[in-house]
Amino acid sequence: TVNVNNLNALSDLHKKPDANFTYGTAGFRMKAELLDSVIFRTGILAALRSKKLDGKVIGCMITASHNPAEDNGVKLVDPMGEMLEGSWEAHATALSNAESNEHLIDYIHSMVSSLKIDLTKPANVVFGRDTRPSGESLVAALADGLKVLDATVTDYGILTTPQLHYITRCLNTAGTPEAYGEPTAEGYYKKLAAAFKVLVEGKTKLSALTLDCANGVGAPKFKEFLPHLDDALSVKIVNDDVDNPSKLNLNSGADFVKTQQRGPIGLKMAPQERYASFDGDADRLVYYYQDDDNTFKLLDGDKIAGLAAMYIIDLVKAAGIDSISVGVVQTAYANGASTQYLRNSLNVPVSCVSTGVKHLHHEALKYDVGVYFEANGHGTVLFSPSALKTIHSTEGSNPAQAVAARSLRALSEVINQTVGDAFSDLLLVETILTQRQWTPKVWDQAYTDLPNRLVKVVVKDRSIFKTVDAERKLVEPAGIQDAIDAIVLKFRDGRSFVRPSGTEDVVRVYAEAATRPETDELAYRIGGLVFDYNSNGSGTRPR
Ligand code: G16
User: Which ligand 1 atom is at minimum distance from the Cα of 279?
Assistant: First the structure.
């Protein structure tokens, strides 16, 4: 059983405030000042998870990713570097909401018995954090939580989220045939850089890429990474001010660029040059450029998925191993034109799942090579064990086939297969553009996005909005979906859906239609409908 005195003493240092918590799209996320007890209890959960898995290493990342500076959160990482298993999210939520130490102990004991956790097993947990100032004290709360069950812990300090996922997998696979690499940031840089150099060898280097790091952890870490690339890639970093925490994700970063459909404020763009943005913990990436007529053009997660799928299909054909099936996973936010392109031009199967990398990752495992990206730039490519085996055993019967097979092998190394990773995705895009000698405009010509708009609506209680069908339909509040459908019908190529965010206290409204004015009107009409349904009088009605 759990040492109750120890738990009481530690838990008293991290008292639960009067609030209700939910493990959301990517873990717990809210105002940092509310998180102390939640993070403490997440430490207990991580230790239980490790014990349940026979001492396998579990990762905890303290970050609120794309959220504003005053927020924070925690994402839990399972042994192979994937997100925490879905069925454990309810336990995380229940532990965080236990009202007293007694309730907390009761819930831990109920988990121990229902999940058959052997408390005598070891617990191993690693953790890291992004650059948010609140991270420091939250890490201390996590460490206290880990003491409750005597976990062995390693603090990796400040890291990007994908680096912690990578390290977790390396630690759990060390010494096995699936060994993933050296479990350090340095090992991560070396692995990615070596693979990238193979992929661009002998090709003419592209002009410098301008990289907006959202004033987050991606900036110092990408600076650490650059020397490993030697001169294989030129990158000019902007928005790297991590010493002014309030600037994090402010008017910059992947979320800003994607939702505002414009470059970071203050960035002067030159026509036909390449620009990219990370989010606050460097697991999302979007590209963009300015066209000759000065219009802003976004190359988001859908465009990256299309580019990656196109390239991989070509490579497996060129290597003579086109028995390998490629599939793409998207969410309802995927632009309708991207889905058409994937299905009709590339002839690949496309599945649509709920928001959250965890859902996409799971679905992508069904393909030999599963490309998954959210439109917001969060995604990666997964190679199944059998696909990897084929790729590694293919010599090719002529030099062209051998080169393609070698590229595929390097590609599987440059891609962080644990989770969406902005560094690794950037190298993937740069590989393809370099190999093809493409400008961003050529990449963009694969298909033309339907105009789209994403609106955030502040409501009284976002939990009343319940969705089905990969979040494309609302079933509650009753009747609202009929009202939405009636509006959508009036718009050419109209599509719209409404879902509560799992990372921010808002309801999101997505709309696309044939033209920009129609799209905006559709988005604002649906947004207004949602606002009127459940307004608390504080937010503004979308218009
Ligand atoms: C997280 C998740 C993403 C999700 C995003 C927005 O991203 O990892 O899968 O798309 O939140 O989710 P929601 O619409 O539910 O707020 P990040 O980069 O913030 O961790």
Answer: 18
Whether ipTM exceeds 0.85: yes
| 37 in catalytic set | no
Catalytic position from the list 65, 351, 407, 424: 65
Please tell me the CATH superfamily of domain 452-534, with its number: Alpha-D-phosphohexomutase, C-terminal domain (3.30.310.50)
Topology classification of domain 301-422: Alpha-D-Glucose-1,6-Bisphosphate; Chain A, domain 3 (3.40.120)
Using the mean position of ligand 1's atoms as its centre, give its distance from the Cα of residue 513 in Å. Answer: 24
Q: Which protein residue's CA is at the shortest distance from atom 4 of ligand 1? A: 356
Contact 284 CB / ligand 1 (< 6 Å): yes
For 121-158, how does the pLDDT look when each residue is reduced to its tens digit (9 = 90+)?
Answer: 999 999 999 999 999 999 999 999 999 999 999 999 99
How many percent of the chain have pLDDT more than 90?
A: 96
Q: Which DSSP string do the residues of 420-439 spell out, in sequence order?
A: --HHHHHHHHHHHHHHHT--
* Cβ–Cβ < 8 Å for 248, 213: no
Q: What is the pLDDT of residues 171-197, one digit of tens each?
A: 999 999 999 999 999 999 999 999 999
- Rounded Cα distance between 20 and 98, Å, is 10
**Closest to 439 in 3D by CA, of 218, 266, 270:** 270
